[in-house]
Amino acid sequence: MSCPFTDPRALFGDLAEARSRPGLTWSESMGRYVVSRYGDIVEALHQPEVFSSRPAVPELPSPWRERFAGRVPDRGTLLGHDNPDHDRLRAAVNTFFMPRRLARFEPWIERNAHALIDEFADRGEIELKRHFALPLPLRTIAHIVGLDVDKADWIGFALAFFLGPKDTHYRASPEEKADALLELHEHIREVMADRRRDRRDDLISHVWNVRDSGEAEMTDFEMLSLFPGLMLAGHETSSNLLCTGLAHLLSRDGAYEAAQHDDASRARALEELLRYESAITGMPRVVTRDTELGGTRLRAGDEVFLAYASGSRDGSVFDNPDGVLLDRGFERPHLGFGQGVHACLGAPLARLLLKTELRVIHERLPGLRLATPYDELEYGPVGEGRGVPELLVRWNPGGPRPARVRTRPGIQAVVAGKSVVADGVVELEFTPVNGRFPAWAPGAHVDIRFAPGLTRQYSLCGDPAEQDRWRVAVRREADGRGGSVHAHDRLAVGDVVTLTGPRNNFALAPAPEYLFIAGGIGITPLLPMLSRAGVPWRMVYLGRTVRSMPYRDVLRGLGDVTIWTSDRGRFDLDALLASAKPGTAVYCCGPERLLAAVEELCDRHALALHVERFAPKPQEFGRNAEFEVVLAGSGRTVRVGPDESVLDAVNRAGAGVPSTCREGTCGTCEVRVLGGKADHRDSVLTPEERAAGEYLMPCVSRSQTPSLVLDL
Question: Are 411 and 499 in contact, with CB atoms under 8 Å apart?
Answer without folding.
Answer: yes
